[in-house]
Amino acid sequence: MNIVSLEETPSLKRSIDQGTGTQREAVTGILQQVKERGDEAVQEYTQQFDKVTIADPRVTEEELSEAEAAVGEETRTVIREAIENIRDFHERQRQETWITTKEDGTILGQKITPLDAAGVYVPGGRAAYPSSIIMNVIPAQVAGVERIVMVSPPQENGKLEDIVLFTAKELGVKEIYKIGGAQAVAALTYGTKTIDPVDKITGPGNIFVALAKQLVYGTVDIDMIAGPSEVVVLADESGHGDYIAADLLSQAEHDPMSSAILVTTSRELAEETAVEVKEQLQTLPKKEIAEAAIRDHSTIYVADTLAQAIAAVNELAPEHLELHTAKPWDIVSKIKHAGAIFLGENSSEPIGDYFAGPNHVLPTNGTARFSSPLNVEDFTKKSSIISYSEQALRENGGKIAAFARLENLEAHARAIDIRLEKGAGHGKTTGS
């Protein structure tokens, strides 16, 4: 890994490819075809991109039962315990409707309502990602979403991985479809004869899935436009190069575009970590992917002071931030921008990916400056509640009408005036 001084680096931000014009045009065409032709178009794209013909993409109860039987008991135990931890964390995020009253009879409040339906995209094909199912489904369930729809690209045999189906079954997901790519996003957005549309789509995918989500936003809500995974480690002289190297590589193996960065106040630790990264790379099963990420998108920055290192971290606004310092709890209050913060050498980032409880769907590419991890609130809506008494209207009506006229909205003002002039009940009486 390259070692550079922060003083020699004018900007730490990197630019992420948001797709070529050709890719965007292709995705736009897929969305339009599925919108117009529904299931027929979905089937054609599944055959074209996944090389498999699926007449009915719905996963059956029989498939779910077969998958459950195929998964070993040890794996089941791990999945179940992870689900328990993650559900417990998200239960603590639950918000409640609230109402407040004033002496003049005003009643104000906020009503929390879950979305009716959410679509969860789970990457698939040649790999299985049960953690993606857990992290997307649980906050929706805790929020109270009644209908959760899962989509995932099929394998060449036309099925989904056993571990994927077992995890979905364990979570109680009933509606699962063997479709992926932009066509799955389109089906969830516009609906087909087979799949009813949803209100929000969450979950990671390749560039075509990301572009599709970006293009359908507004018709449905989405979680975020996720870029390649990234980790930043902030370390002082107390850090261990072998631990840090292992954590950097744990992100580098995700994708050749992944970013793994060390910001340290110790030149000695920087050099030790660079050597460790090189050595540990040699035995990684995904060596080529990790090597590309380390070569093209990863750096070790040496800071003169801890304050300078913290400022660099806040500029990077990383998806994952690890604090390998002597007193990490003294630093955490100074971190303004990070998706998830891992404190101390025992809190390796994979703990958050799979087991601890917080959500691993995190803002990437600097968007932690203004956004948060996927959470229960993302699957709810808020409605304001306003009830004015006659007393409150008479005390405040003149001010409200005056404010409306400040903006030259006379009809707004008159809607108040007529009530002030005619009074309660407008002279009507109720018959017996």
Q: Spans with pLDDT under 50 lasting ≥5 residues?
A: none
Helix content: 40-55%
Assembly category: single chain
CATH architecture descriptor of the largest domain: 3-Layer(aba) Sandwich
The 3D shape can be described as: globular
Q: Topology as H/E string?
A: EHHHHEEEHEHEHEHEEHEHHEHEHEHEHH
Task: Report the structural category.
Answer: alpha/beta
Question: Helical region count?
Answer: 16
Q: Termini separation (Å)?
A: 87 Å
CATH class of the largest domain: Alpha Beta
Query: Strands of the largest sheet, in order across it?
Result: 1-11-10-9-12-13
Number of domains: 3
Number of strands: 14
Strand content range: 15-25%
CATH-derived topology of the largest domain: Rossmann fold
From the structure above, extract its key features.
432 residues, alpha/beta, Rossmann fold, 3 domains, six-stranded parallel β-sheet, 16 helices, 14 strands, 44% helix, globular
Description:
The chain is an alpha/beta fold. It folds into three domains: 2-14 and 227-356, Rossmann fold (3-Layer(aba) Sandwich), CATH 3.40.50.1980; 21-222, 3-Layer(aba) Sandwich (Rossmann fold); 388-427, no CATH class. Helix content is 44%, strand content 16%. It contains 16 helices and 14 strands. It has helices at residues 21-37, 39-50, 61-70, 73-91, 130-143, 162-171, 181-190, 207-216, 241-252, 267-281, 287-297, 306-316, 328-331, 349-354, 390-406, 410-422, and strands at 2-5, 98-101, 107-114, 117-121, 147-151, 175-177, 200-202, 221-222, 230-235, 259-264, 299-302, 320-324, 340-343, 380-387. A hairpin with a 5-residue loop joins strand 2 and strand 3 (107-114). Helix 2 (39-50) runs antiparallel to helix 7 (181-190) and helix 15 runs antiparallel to helix 16. The longest helix is centred in the N-terminal third of the chain and has 19 residues, at 73-91. The model has no long low-confidence stretch (mean pLDDT 94). Keywords: Amino-acid biosynthesis, Histidine biosynthesis, Metal-binding, NAD, Oxidoreductase, Zinc. One of its GO terms (biological process) is L-histidine biosynthetic process. This is Histidinol dehydrogenase. Substrate binds at residues 229, 251, 254, 320, 353, 407, 412.
